[in-house]
Amino acid sequence: MRYKLLYLVAFVALVAVPAFAVTGRCVKLNPNTVCAPIWDDYNQSDSRVDCDGTVVQLIGMCAQNTGTADVSVRTYLTTSTTLANNYRCWCMMAEPMISKWVLRAVYDDVEDCKRSCNIGCKNAFKYDNEVDRTFRNTIMSNFI
Length: 144
Description:
Elements: H1 2-21, E1 36-37, E2 46-51, E3 54-63, E4 73-74, E5 88-95, E6 101-106, H2 110-126, H3 130-140
């Protein structure tokens, strides 16, 4: 009987402790908020912006998937083995929440996309105009 009780206590501890260890915080992101860039680097595939004290991590990727800029959403992207076909810039939010991919821009060629995609994702968060608000609304409405 003593061992059964010991096993029961051990089992409850293993199951319950991780549940108490999980902590979360509520983050309010507003598509109308204009954010400030934390750093700029054209050759990185990720970027961060500060939105009223909340750091938003963005990831840009050049892919072949088609769509309409600022409103098309995908869960997964595909890249072509023919690199020249990967000239569409898709962005996703990686922090504080994970979003689906949103098409940001279609470039003339893959080199323009590789050079500008990161900054295009970041710029969508740092300018206040209808196009950028549409993009922010789309990305903030499509969390995974």
